[in-house]
């Protein structure tokens, strides 16, 4: 199982996505934990079972048990926060911005890995989920921790490509009927 396995399932009409996937899997802008944590958090956010399984298999080769847990925690907490804070941001009623969220999010303060890595994964998932308020907050934290704009851009590039792969494979499954999941897994 590898990124090549994922690439092999991407149709020819999405050749650019395949090429981007290859180049990002070999990108050296991020350290190993940042790279594979970003890939896995984004795969989880993309919700495609095949992509999640394949990326998880590769990520497990590169990440500690703590980093794997933290990556999953980043994807899960952003699944909640991105909805809530996107609502707060988009609502015409600005009173919501003054109200406490009243949602538990302790993992952000103690993620079990380096804070900047967790913030990077959270930013990438927030980009997928389209929460501008969360993107701004995580970017500010990353810049404050000395993470470069190039590293931030790389994480968002990974988010865009992993999300594109998930969408493409979901679309292909829908076009090919119920047996597509079995075909993808083969």
Please give the CATH architecture: Up-down Bundle
Which structural class fits the helix and strand makeup? mainly alpha
Helix content: over 70%
Report the radius of gyration as a whole number of Å: 17 Å
How many runs of DSSP E, i.e. beta strands?
0
> Biggest sheet: strands, sense, closure?
none
Determine the CATH superfamily.
Answer: AhpD-like
Q: What string gives the helices and strands in order?
A: HHHHHHHHH
Sheet-strand content, in percent, reads: under 5%
Net shape: globular
Uncertain segments: none
- The total tally of domains equals 1
Structural summary, described in words:
By secondary structure, this protein is mostly helical. It has a single domain, classed as AhpD-like. 73% of the residues lie in helices and 0% in strands. It has helices at residues 3-9, 15-25, 32-46, 49-62, 65-90, 115-129, 132-144, 149-176, 180-185. Helix 3 (32-46) packs antiparallel against helix 4 (49-62), helix 3 runs parallel beside helix 6 (115-129) and helix 6 packs antiparallel against helix 7. The chain is globular, with a radius of gyration of 17 Å. The termini are close together. The mean pLDDT is 94.
């Amino acid at each position: 199982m590898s990124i090549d396995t994922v690439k092999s399932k991407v149709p020819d009409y999405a050749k650019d996505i395949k090429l981007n996937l290859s180049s990002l899997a070999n990108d050296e802008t991020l350290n190993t934990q940042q790279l594979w944590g970003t890939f896995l958090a984004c795969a989880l956010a993309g919700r495609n079972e095949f992509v999640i399984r394949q990326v998880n298999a590769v990520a497990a080769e590169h990440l500690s048990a703590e980093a794997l847990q933290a990556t999953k925690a980043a994807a899960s907490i952003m699944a909640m926060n991105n909805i809530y804070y996107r609502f707060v941001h988009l609502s015409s009623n600005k009173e919501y911005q003054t109200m406490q969220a009243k949602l538990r999010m302790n993992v952000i303060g103690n993620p079990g890995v380096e804070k900047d890595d967790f913030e990077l994964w959270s930013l990438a998932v927030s980009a997928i989920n389209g929460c501008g308020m969360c993107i701004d907050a995580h970017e500010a934290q990353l810049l404050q921790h000395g993470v470069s704009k190039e590293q931030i851009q790389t994480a968002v590039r990974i988010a865009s490509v992993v999300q594109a792969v998930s969408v493409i494979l979901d679309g292909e499954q829908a076009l090919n009927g119920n047996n597509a999941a079995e075909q993808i897994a083969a």
